[in-house]
Amino acid sequence: MDLEFLSAHIVKRGRFGAYNMAQDASVLAGLLARRIKRAEKHIATAESCTGGMIASALTDIQGASRWFSQGWVTYSNESKIKQLGVDKSIFVLDEGSAGAVSPEVAEAMAIGAAKKSGAELTIAVTGIAGPTGSTESKEVGLVWVGIYLNGEVTTKSAEFGHGDRHSNKEAFTTFALRVALGVWGEHYDQEKAEEESADEDDSTTTTSVPAALNVLSEGPQTGDWHGDVAWSEGDEEPETEPSEESAIPDSDITWNED
Protein backbone atom coordinates (compact mmCIF):
# COMPACT_ATOMS: atom_id res chain seq x y z
CA MET A 1 0.00 0.00 0.00
CA ASP A 2 1.12 3.59 -0.74
CA LEU A 3 2.91 4.77 2.41
CA GLU A 4 2.66 8.40 1.32
CA PHE A 5 -1.12 8.07 1.15
CA LEU A 6 -1.22 6.43 4.58
CA SER A 7 1.11 8.87 6.31
CA ALA A 8 -1.58 11.48 6.95
CA HIS A 9 -4.15 9.04 8.29
CA ILE A 10 -5.35 8.70 11.86
CA VAL A 11 -6.51 5.26 12.96
CA LYS A 12 -9.02 4.60 15.74
CA ARG A 13 -10.10 1.14 16.80
CA GLY A 14 -12.85 -0.12 19.04
CA ARG A 15 -15.17 -2.97 19.86
CA PHE A 16 -18.93 -3.18 20.05
CA GLY A 17 -20.52 -5.05 22.91
CA ALA A 18 -24.11 -5.54 21.75
CA TYR A 19 -25.47 -8.57 19.92
CA ASN A 20 -28.60 -7.03 18.49
CA MET A 21 -29.08 -4.40 15.79
CA ALA A 22 -32.76 -3.53 15.50
CA GLN A 23 -32.61 -0.75 12.93
CA ASP A 24 -33.39 -1.61 9.34
CA ALA A 25 -30.51 -1.11 6.92
CA SER A 26 -32.66 0.90 4.53
CA VAL A 27 -33.46 3.47 7.23
CA LEU A 28 -29.81 3.85 8.19
CA ALA A 29 -28.78 4.06 4.54
CA GLY A 30 -31.29 6.86 4.05
CA LEU A 31 -29.96 8.79 7.02
CA LEU A 32 -26.38 8.43 5.81
CA ALA A 33 -27.30 9.37 2.24
CA ARG A 34 -28.98 12.55 3.46
CA ARG A 35 -25.81 13.65 5.22
CA ILE A 36 -23.53 12.78 2.30
CA LYS A 37 -25.74 14.63 -0.17
CA ARG A 38 -26.05 17.70 2.05
CA ALA A 39 -22.27 17.86 2.52
CA GLU A 40 -21.72 17.32 -1.23
CA LYS A 41 -19.44 14.33 -0.54
CA HIS A 42 -19.16 10.87 -2.11
CA ILE A 43 -19.10 7.35 -0.71
CA ALA A 44 -17.60 4.06 -1.87
CA THR A 45 -17.85 0.57 -0.37
CA ALA A 46 -15.49 -2.40 -0.09
CA GLU A 47 -17.28 -5.54 1.05
CA SER A 48 -16.31 -9.12 1.72
CA CYS A 49 -18.71 -11.08 3.94
CA THR A 50 -21.75 -8.89 3.11
CA GLY A 51 -21.42 -9.60 -0.61
CA GLY A 52 -22.61 -6.17 -1.76
CA MET A 53 -25.51 -5.70 0.65
CA ILE A 54 -24.20 -2.32 1.86
CA ALA A 55 -23.88 -1.01 -1.69
CA SER A 56 -27.33 -2.37 -2.46
CA ALA A 57 -28.91 -0.59 0.52
CA LEU A 58 -27.31 2.70 -0.53
CA THR A 59 -28.11 2.43 -4.23
CA ASP A 60 -31.75 1.55 -3.50
CA ILE A 61 -32.08 5.28 -2.78
CA GLN A 62 -33.24 7.40 -5.69
CA GLY A 63 -30.53 9.73 -7.00
CA ALA A 64 -27.69 7.65 -5.53
CA SER A 65 -25.57 8.29 -8.63
CA ARG A 66 -24.98 11.83 -7.36
CA TRP A 67 -23.09 10.67 -4.25
CA PHE A 68 -22.37 6.92 -4.56
CA SER A 69 -19.09 6.49 -6.44
CA GLN A 70 -18.56 2.74 -6.66
CA GLY A 71 -18.33 -0.49 -4.71
CA TRP A 72 -16.18 -3.60 -4.58
CA VAL A 73 -17.06 -7.14 -3.48
CA THR A 74 -13.61 -8.49 -2.71
CA TYR A 75 -14.52 -11.88 -1.30
CA SER A 76 -11.19 -13.64 -1.68
CA ASN A 77 -7.90 -12.58 -0.15
CA GLU A 78 -6.42 -12.32 -3.64
CA SER A 79 -9.09 -9.84 -4.74
CA LYS A 80 -8.47 -7.70 -1.66
CA ILE A 81 -4.78 -7.58 -2.57
CA LYS A 82 -5.29 -6.92 -6.30
CA GLN A 83 -8.33 -4.63 -6.21
CA LEU A 84 -7.77 -2.66 -2.99
CA GLY A 85 -4.04 -2.91 -2.41
CA VAL A 86 -4.27 -4.77 0.90
CA ASP A 87 -0.80 -5.90 1.95
CA LYS A 88 -0.53 -9.63 1.27
CA SER A 89 1.58 -10.15 4.41
CA ILE A 90 -1.58 -9.69 6.50
CA PHE A 91 -2.91 -12.98 5.14
CA VAL A 92 0.27 -15.04 5.55
CA LEU A 93 -0.42 -18.05 7.77
CA ASP A 94 2.45 -17.40 10.13
CA GLU A 95 2.33 -16.69 13.81
CA GLY A 96 1.38 -13.07 14.40
CA SER A 97 -0.48 -12.50 11.11
CA ALA A 98 -3.76 -10.65 11.42
CA GLY A 99 -5.81 -12.79 9.06
CA ALA A 100 -8.64 -11.82 6.75
CA VAL A 101 -11.09 -10.96 9.55
CA SER A 102 -9.20 -8.32 11.46
CA PRO A 103 -9.02 -4.57 12.08
CA GLU A 104 -5.90 -4.44 9.92
CA VAL A 105 -7.74 -5.78 6.87
CA ALA A 106 -10.83 -3.61 7.47
CA GLU A 107 -8.57 -0.57 7.75
CA ALA A 108 -6.61 -1.45 4.61
CA MET A 109 -9.79 -2.11 2.62
CA ALA A 110 -11.29 1.24 3.64
CA ILE A 111 -8.12 3.12 2.72
CA GLY A 112 -7.76 1.22 -0.54
CA ALA A 113 -11.33 2.05 -1.52
CA ALA A 114 -10.73 5.73 -0.73
CA LYS A 115 -7.53 5.78 -2.75
CA LYS A 116 -9.06 4.01 -5.76
CA SER A 117 -12.37 5.91 -5.82
CA GLY A 118 -11.45 9.34 -4.51
CA ALA A 119 -14.50 9.25 -2.22
CA GLU A 120 -14.35 11.20 1.03
CA LEU A 121 -16.20 8.41 2.89
CA THR A 122 -15.70 4.66 2.48
CA ILE A 123 -17.16 1.66 4.29
CA ALA A 124 -15.24 -1.63 4.40
CA VAL A 125 -16.39 -4.85 6.02
CA THR A 126 -14.85 -8.27 6.64
CA GLY A 127 -16.27 -11.02 8.82
CA ILE A 128 -17.37 -14.63 9.31
CA ALA A 129 -21.01 -15.10 8.31
CA GLY A 130 -21.01 -18.86 8.93
CA PRO A 131 -22.08 -21.52 9.36
CA THR A 132 -18.42 -22.54 9.01
CA GLY A 133 -15.21 -20.55 9.02
CA SER A 134 -14.64 -20.08 12.72
CA THR A 135 -11.21 -20.50 14.30
CA GLU A 136 -9.96 -20.87 17.87
CA SER A 137 -9.83 -17.10 18.25
CA LYS A 138 -12.58 -15.96 15.84
CA GLU A 139 -16.14 -17.24 16.05
CA VAL A 140 -18.91 -17.22 13.46
CA GLY A 141 -20.69 -13.88 13.67
CA LEU A 142 -17.55 -11.77 14.14
CA VAL A 143 -17.27 -8.73 11.87
CA TRP A 144 -14.81 -5.88 11.54
CA VAL A 145 -15.84 -2.61 9.90
CA GLY A 146 -13.46 0.05 8.62
CA ILE A 147 -14.62 3.62 8.00
CA TYR A 148 -12.48 6.11 6.12
CA LEU A 149 -13.61 9.73 6.40
CA ASN A 150 -11.61 12.75 5.33
CA GLY A 151 -8.20 11.26 6.08
CA GLU A 152 -9.10 9.38 9.27
CA VAL A 153 -9.75 5.66 9.63
CA THR A 154 -11.90 4.09 12.33
CA THR A 155 -12.24 0.33 12.80
CA LYS A 156 -14.86 -1.31 15.00
CA SER A 157 -15.99 -4.87 15.58
CA ALA A 158 -19.16 -6.63 16.65
CA GLU A 159 -20.13 -10.22 17.38
CA PHE A 160 -23.42 -11.70 16.18
CA GLY A 161 -23.01 -15.35 16.98
CA HIS A 162 -26.52 -16.76 17.07
CA GLY A 163 -27.90 -16.11 13.61
CA ASP A 164 -27.74 -18.08 10.41
CA ARG A 165 -25.62 -16.99 7.46
CA HIS A 166 -28.20 -14.62 5.95
CA SER A 167 -29.19 -13.00 9.24
CA ASN A 168 -25.52 -12.48 10.09
CA LYS A 169 -24.97 -10.76 6.74
CA GLU A 170 -27.94 -8.51 7.42
CA ALA A 171 -26.62 -7.73 10.90
CA PHE A 172 -23.17 -6.95 9.50
CA THR A 173 -24.71 -4.57 6.95
CA THR A 174 -26.79 -2.77 9.55
CA PHE A 175 -23.83 -2.51 11.90
CA ALA A 176 -21.57 -1.10 9.20
CA LEU A 177 -24.07 1.60 8.26
CA ARG A 178 -24.57 2.52 11.89
CA VAL A 179 -20.83 2.77 12.48
CA ALA A 180 -20.55 5.02 9.42
CA LEU A 181 -23.28 7.28 10.82
CA GLY A 182 -21.50 7.46 14.15
CA VAL A 183 -18.15 8.33 12.60
CA TRP A 184 -19.82 10.95 10.41
CA GLY A 185 -21.55 12.53 13.40
CA GLU A 186 -18.37 12.49 15.47
CA HIS A 187 -16.32 14.13 12.71
CA TYR A 188 -18.76 16.89 11.83
CA ASP A 189 -19.81 17.58 15.42
CA GLN A 190 -16.16 18.05 16.32
CA GLU A 191 -15.67 20.27 13.28
CA LYS A 192 -18.65 22.38 14.33
CA ALA A 193 -17.28 22.65 17.87
CA GLU A 194 -13.95 23.89 16.56
CA GLU A 195 -15.67 26.45 14.34
CA GLU A 196 -17.81 27.70 17.22
CA SER A 197 -14.74 27.90 19.46
CA ALA A 198 -12.95 30.00 16.83
CA ASP A 199 -15.97 32.28 16.56
CA GLU A 200 -15.90 32.79 20.33
CA ASP A 201 -12.26 33.85 20.22
CA ASP A 202 -13.06 36.51 17.63
CA SER A 203 -16.15 37.84 19.35
CA THR A 204 -16.56 40.25 22.27
CA THR A 205 -19.58 38.25 23.42
CA THR A 206 -18.81 34.98 25.18
CA THR A 207 -21.01 32.02 24.29
CA SER A 208 -20.55 28.45 25.51
CA VAL A 209 -20.08 25.41 23.29
CA PRO A 210 -22.63 22.67 24.10
CA ALA A 211 -21.24 20.09 26.51
CA ALA A 212 -21.72 17.21 24.07
CA LEU A 213 -19.54 18.97 21.52
CA ASN A 214 -16.87 19.67 24.14
CA VAL A 215 -16.72 15.96 24.95
CA LEU A 216 -16.16 15.11 21.29
CA SER A 217 -13.53 17.79 20.81
CA GLU A 218 -11.52 16.56 23.80
CA GLY A 219 -10.96 13.07 22.34
CA PRO A 220 -7.46 11.91 21.40
CA GLN A 221 -6.31 12.52 17.86
CA THR A 222 -4.19 9.41 17.48
CA GLY A 223 -4.26 5.83 18.69
CA ASP A 224 -7.30 4.15 20.21
CA TRP A 225 -10.46 5.94 21.27
CA HIS A 226 -11.71 5.61 24.84
CA GLY A 227 -15.04 6.45 26.39
CA ASP A 228 -18.67 6.39 25.30
CA VAL A 229 -19.53 7.70 21.86
CA ALA A 230 -22.86 9.42 21.32
CA TRP A 231 -24.49 8.88 17.94
CA SER A 232 -25.20 12.37 16.65
CA GLU A 233 -27.66 12.64 13.80
CA GLY A 234 -26.66 16.23 12.93
CA ASP A 235 -28.87 19.26 12.40
CA GLU A 236 -32.00 18.39 10.45
CA GLU A 237 -34.65 20.56 8.84
CA PRO A 238 -37.92 20.87 10.81
CA GLU A 239 -40.46 18.23 9.83
CA THR A 240 -44.21 18.34 10.15
CA GLU A 241 -44.43 14.61 10.74
CA PRO A 242 -42.45 12.39 13.12
CA SER A 243 -39.01 11.74 11.69
CA GLU A 244 -37.81 8.23 11.01
CA GLU A 245 -34.70 9.23 12.95
CA SER A 246 -36.73 9.07 16.16
CA ALA A 247 -36.61 5.30 15.78
CA ILE A 248 -32.84 5.29 16.26
CA PRO A 249 -32.12 4.98 20.00
CA ASP A 250 -28.90 6.09 21.67
CA SER A 251 -26.10 3.66 20.99
CA ASP A 252 -24.35 1.66 23.67
CA ILE A 253 -21.14 1.53 21.66
CA THR A 254 -17.92 2.00 23.58
CA TRP A 255 -14.42 2.45 22.24
CA ASN A 256 -11.92 0.14 23.92
CA GLU A 257 -8.40 -0.98 23.32
CA ASP A 258 -8.07 -4.12 21.21
Tally of distinct domains = 1
What is the CATH superfamily label?
Answer: CinA-like
Name the strands of the widest sheet in spatial order: 1-6-5-4-2-3
Give the terminus-to-terminus CA distance. 23 Å
Please report the total strand number as a whole number: 8
Broad structural category: alpha/beta
- Please state the CA-atom Rg, rounded to the nearest Å: 18 Å
Low-pLDDT ranges: 6-22, 203-258
Could you please describe the fold and organization of this structure?
The structure is a single chain. The protein has 258 residues and is an alpha/beta fold. 36% of the residues lie in helices and 17% in strands. The chain has seven helices and eight strands. The two termini are 23 Å apart. Strand 5 and strand 6 form a beta hairpin.
Task: Output the keywords.
6-stranded mixed β-sheet, 8 strands, Maf protein, 7 helices, 36% helix, 258 residues, two-stranded antiparallel sheet, alpha/beta, disordered C terminus
Compact overview of the structure:
With 258 residues, this protein is an alpha/beta fold. The protein has helices at 3-6, 25-39, 53-59, 77-84, 103-117, 165-201, 211-217; strands at 10-15, 43-47, 68-73, 121-127, 142-149, 152-159, 227-228, 254-255.
